[in-house]
Amino acid sequence: MPRNFNGTSDWIVLDGARVSDGSTAFSLAVWVKSGLKTFGMVYSETNGGGSRPLFFVCQNGSSGGNGSKLELELSSAGSVDVAISSGVFFDSSWHHLGLTQNASNLITIYRDGVQDSTFTRTANSNSSGQSMPTVRWGASQLNASTGNLYGGTLSDGATWTRQLSAAEIKSLADGMRPSQLGPAHYWPLWGADSPEPDLVSAGIDGILTGTARGAGGPPVGLSMLRLAS
């Protein structure tokens, strides 16, 4: 049972779970389902009280976007890289979202297990003056304020401190549990527990703000094999 976020008062705090630390490889995967909402924040890593996104995954609002596509924002030593997917992710249907970055800063976006687009971030995000990163499902936190709340459903969110292969992303879109691929963090987003358990890393359970509830799951039979305890 995934979590359904109401778009006005629901988010999950995951502080301590940052994986996007500049020029090192990382990956993120999650099932998403939402209608149109510009800048609805799926996942964010920000620099605490500052105004700079370390890593945002949201519904597109830049350049007149209507919230149907995926937008990435990544800090780059004083500026922000922005990339928007080619395909639609937010059309009130379930889609699997996969992101990978290699050690050369090449980021690949996958939609339902198929490569959507690529881009290269311009610089390392570890610029000076950043405070302890804040990490969220369903919201961002900039200038000490929580905003850009996501209205929709999320399921089986996970992050890795390595680049997943295209075949691994496809296996997740086909229904494999993230726990089978050795993630750094895995939150099933079951929609029932608070804290939201991280089934891989002790001490990184997600703290729920609001009343996000369970909803119908993604259109795949998610494998329960090797589910971490």
For the structure shown, list the relevant keywords.
Jelly Rolls; 40% strand; globular; 7-stranded antiparallel beta sheet; disordered C terminus
Walkthrough of the structure:
- With 229 residues, the protein is mainly beta.
- It has a single domain, classed as Jelly Rolls (Sandwich).
- The protein contains one helix and 17 strands.
- It has one helix spanning 166-173, and strands spanning 3-6, 11-13, 26-33, 41-46, 53-59, 69-75, 80-88, 95-101, 106-111, 114-120, 134-137, 140-142, 145-147, 151-160, 185-187, 207-209, 213-214.
- Strands 1, 3, 8, 9, 10, 14, 15 and 17 form an eight-stranded antiparallel sheet that branches. A seven-stranded antiparallel sheet has the order 7-6-5-4-11-2-16, with no helix packed on it. The chain has a two-stranded antiparallel sheet with strand order 12-13.
- A hairpin with a 6-residue loop joins strand 4 and strand 5.
- The longest helix is centred in the C-terminal third of the chain and has 8 residues, at 166-173.
- 47% of the residues are buried.
In short:
The protein is mainly beta and 229 residues long. The protein has 1 helix and 17 strands.
